[in-house]
Amino acid sequence: MDWGMQNRLSRLIQSDGHCFFLPIDHGYFQGPTRKLEKPGETIKPLIPYVDALFVTRGVLRSCINPRTSPPIILRISGGTSIIGKDLSHEGIITSIQEVLRLSVAAVGMSIFVGSEYEHDSLLNLGKLVDECENYGIPVMAVTAVGKELEKRDARYLGLCCRIAAELGAQVVKTYWCENFEKVVNGCPVPVVMAGGPKCETEREVFEFVYDGMQKGAIGLNLGRNVWQHEHPVAMVKALRTIVHENASVEEANDLFRSLSGE
């Protein structure tokens, strides 16, 4: 692996081999998502506790202080909206020149395996990897499912992750699911977890995060369970202990309760 690629990955994946990325890219297809209407204000208290932000270039430039920013993973796919016909009809919307200009640590894009536009998204990933390899920039593939949430099972996600790795992605972001070890074991590159099932309590979030870490994930790329929470700082601190301190569910839950006053 080239020096530049190694250097950028080391900014993202910490010395313990783990990472906690905070995605705030939801507006690129959802618009002003609840609690993310003013991204800069929402994430300001959270930045000290995360290893990187996953963000679009527009929000990066307008809302993130370049002097105090953590490493950046730049969202470079888009072209659809939540009210459009098909969320999977994405393309690459940012040039390699822009990626270099913004001095980011990595780029990220979605792939839609099993959708009408599977072919397009996978070709886009292959082309992106080719271009980014020329400049030592890691690519994170996001195994998106659009509105078809029933696809979040180990067989489907394992297929998506393996294809992303086969096409050259250095990191894969995917959903937690039952039998998550089957997803990780079939993917030869590091896997980070997005959200899992809809959770009613903080403890349920800690449980699926702990399970995923125990089954081989290197970390999180988790947003709404943090910044939409009533106590986001308590949530991010508790999750960080699971990722970087191997805390148990009980320990994380106890920390959350003490910090939130619950």
Give me a quick take on this structure.
This protein is of the alpha/beta class and 262 residues long. It has one domain: Alpha-Beta Barrel (TIM Barrel), CATH 3.20.20.
Describe this structure as you would to a colleague.
Helix content is 42%, strand content 15%. By secondary structure, it is α/β, with parallel strands linked by helices. The protein has a single domain (3-223), classed as Alpha-Beta Barrel (TIM Barrel). The strands form 2 sheets. Strands 1-2-3-6-7-8-9-10 form an 8-stranded parallel beta barrel, surrounded by 6 helices. Helix 9 (202-214) runs parallel beside helix 11 (232-245), helix 9 runs antiparallel to helix 12 and helix 11 (232-245) packs antiparallel against helix 12.
Stretches where pLDDT falls below 50 for ≥5 residues?
none
Distance separating the two termini: 47 Å
| Fraction of residues in β-strands | 5-15%
CATH topology: TIM Barrel
Provide the succession of SSEs: HEHHEHEEEHEHEHEHEHEHHH
Q: Over all CA atoms, what is the radius of gyration?
A: 17 Å
Assigned CATH class: Alpha Beta
* Average pLDDT metric: 95
CATH architecture: Alpha-Beta Barrel
Number of strands: 10
Shape: globular
Strand order of the largest sheet: 1-2-3-6-7-8-9-10
Instruction: Summarize the amount of helix as a percent range.
Output: 40-55%
Structural class: alpha/beta
Number of separate helices: 12
Please give the domain count. Answer: 1
CATH homology-level superfamily: Aldolase class I
The main sheet comes to: 8 strands, parallel, barrel
